[in-house]
Amino acid sequence: MSEQGGFWSRLVVREDKLRPVTAGADSRLGRPRIVGWGDLVGREGGGIVVLVVLFGALALASEAFLTVGNMGNLSRQFTVYGIIAIGELLVILTRGIDLSVGSVVGLSGAIAAELMVSGLPIPVAVLGALGTGLAVGLINGALVAYAKLPAFIVTLGMLGAARGLVLLITDAKTIQPLPEGFSSIANATFLGLPNMFWIAVLLTAAIGLMLRRTVWGRYIYATGSNLESARLSGVPVRKVQLSVFALSGLLAGVAGMLLASRLDAGVPTAGETYELDAIAACVIGGASLFGAKGSAIGAAIGAMITSTLNNGGNLLEVNSFYLRIAIGVLIILAISFDQFQTRVLQRSKAPPG
């Protein structure tokens, strides 16, 4: 890498249209291979087609699907999944995994509720929720980046620890009532859609811009493409890993606060299994679990697909177990397609004979 100076001072928008690094390395230069944005658009295209077909089918199957009320419900369901999926994507791009995001959603929402019930103002409670998510993310990141522990084991342990802490703090009871005005953070509307939806849109746009236009984004793709090559090229891989886990935790904290605001209560079981939904959204949206492939808009599209499946299933009174099966099949198909695409690409570049 040619950039010089401190890592944090270089997290600025570049004028030369930085392109992401995808899996694979240049065999001649020994560096991660750089490709254009057409690769990512192609990966997102399948998700867009699935979403359009899904919307069309549900619109024909249920008259209630396209109503204003149901679109509001769908946008609320999408928001929480979408925000944590974007955070999960950052970790997956570096070839990691964060299994703690669901528990962090529950923990941050419970912390916010407890702070408000104890008499603290709403802004302090919101900051407490975000700080909780950030703290958990930093712990995860430090253990992975500096202690060199496997991300799967670290975040699996944090999943259990954070969930146990939620139950301990709340005594396994719902925390309410909460102060007036807190629910408006998520449920008040702008242009006919709830505020929480617009928050998710802004976060998606911000993370997408950071991934596409900053040196930090390029570092993330480089780390996921080939960690050792990235390190030898001057990429501060430890700081990159720490930053993505920190942001994953912070975004889970945002989602937890919004979920508590939507429910107007701190629910100890909030966020259970959300980590699986976040991973599913990333994979369905075109991300690769092998790192360096995926985008923020793709993760958002995947979250919208899973949310639409759940919403449409409720309208059509489909057994929720069938919906879980459908989402699981989508994950398997998405991973299978990614592997097939990778093998075809490798064969096309193999020398003849």
From TrEMBL:
Pfam families cross-referenced by the UniProt entry: BPD_transp_2
Major site of localization recorded for this protein: membrane
Record-level Gene Ontology MF annotations: transmembrane transporter activity
Keyword terms: Cell membrane, Membrane, Transmembrane, Transmembrane helix
Superkingdom to which the source organism belongs: Bacteria
Membrane topology listed for this record: Multi-pass membrane protein
Transmembrane segments: 46-66, 78-97, 117-139, 151-170, 190-211, 321-340
PANTHER family for this protein: ABC TRANSPORTER PERMEASE PROTEIN YPHD-RELATED-RELATED, RIBOSE IMPORT PERMEASE PROTEIN RBSC
Name listed for the protein in its UniProt record: Monosaccharide ABC transporter membrane protein (CUT2 family)
Organism expressing this protein natively: Tamaricihabitans halophyticus
